[in-house]
Design goal:
This protein has 2 domains: 161 residues, 3-Layer(aba) Sandwich (Rossmann fold), CATH 3.40.50; 118 residues, N-(1-d-carboxylethyl)-l-norvaline Dehydrogenase, domain 2, CATH 1.10.1040. It has 292 residues and is an alpha/beta fold. Strands 1, 2, 3, 4, 5, 6, 7, 8 and 9 form a 9-stranded mixed β-sheet that branches. The model has no long low-confidence stretch (mean pLDDT 97). It contains 14 helices and 9 strands.
């Protein structure tokens, strides 16, 4: 595969390993992180350069990748005099891996298009483990030509990469993903709690039913730690509530009914009230064990 000058903006638990895969596959990687020491740590571990601003990181690059927190963070690193768009050249492609709103994706696409820059909204699924192993699922929205150019580069850290439709379709697909996950985790929490209160060996129950129609990624990867009451890892409740807020806001705009999602979102608020904002999303079972 051809090697490119690429920038990666946002070196959190996802972005740090994703940028590492780009470096390992031969791309010349420029990174930016708001906490400078994080960028310095990345460059100490990989071949690459740490920049002082998003614009400096993006300057002269063929592709710019972004993975930050929310709509406000996307605007902060892309817009303005020091933003990535100011540093990008015409003809380059911007790929935003942030889980954000479809509205901000369209906003960025307009600004990028005015500058002759391609844009894909491309949120990911697979969690920190998927990022570290390079097996993420990427759901993209945007122009097909931009997608075809970026896809081989994205595959440095992704197993599945799909174009879902025009700009915004990637974010809308990620909302579907989070809606489905929320319901699955709540169902798993209720099932495991029921098994334990019924006097069953919950681990054996999970092992048996995971071989049938109840099987899910959450059951395979989270049932054991839920039974052990361990949640100090994984995808944080705070981030899940952010994602569900985005989905619920979009549902109010498009008329979709999300009664179960709204209920699970409130259950996550209860986990936060117990001090579990940084716990893994599987901590929903805590509310069933400790309802107070």
């Amino acid at each position: 595969m051809a090697s490119y000058d690429v920038a990666f903006i946002g070196l959190g638990v996802m972005g740090y390993p994703m940028a590492g895969h780009l470096a390992r596959t031969g791309h010349r990687v420029h990174v930016f992180n708001r906490t400078q020491t994080r960028g310095e740590a990345w460059t100490a571990a990989h071949l690459g350069r740490s920049a002082a601003s998003p614009g400096e990181a993006a300057e002269g690059c063929d592709f710019v990748f972004v993975c930050v927190g929310d709509d406000a963070d996307v605007r902060a690193v892309l817009f303005g005099r020091d933003g990535a768009l100011a540093g990008m050249r015409s003809g380059a492609v911007l790929v935003d891996h942030t889980t954000a709103s479809a509205g901000v994706a369209r906003e960025v696409a307009t600004e990028a298009g005015d500058r002759g820059i391609g844009f894909l909204d491309a949120p990911v699924s697979g969690g920190q483990a998927g990022a570290e192993k390079g097996i993420l699922t990427v759901m993209a929205g945007g122009d097909e030509a931009d997608f075809r150019r970026a896809e081989p580069v994205i595959r440095a850290y992704a197993k599945t990469v799909a174009l879902m439709g025009p700009v915004g379709a990637g974010q809308l697909t990620k909302m579907v993903n989070q809606i489905c996950i929320a319901g699955v985790i709540q169902g798993l929490a209720e099932g495991l709690n029921f098994a334990q209160r019924a006097g069953l060996e919950a681990g054996l129950v999970a092992d048996v039913i995971s071989r049938g129609a109840a099987q899910s990624w959450q059951m395979e990867n989270r049932a054991a730690t839920m039974i052990e009451d361990r949640f100090d890892f994984g995808f944080a409740v705070n981030w899940m509530r952010k994602d569900l807020r985005i989905a619920l806001e979009e549902a109010r705009r498009n008329g979709a009914r999300l009664p179960a999602t709204a209920l699970v979102d409130q259950f996550y608020a209860g986990v936060q009230a117990q001090g579990g904002g940084r716990w893994d999303t599987s901590s929903l079972i805590r509310l069933l064990r400790e309802p107070g």
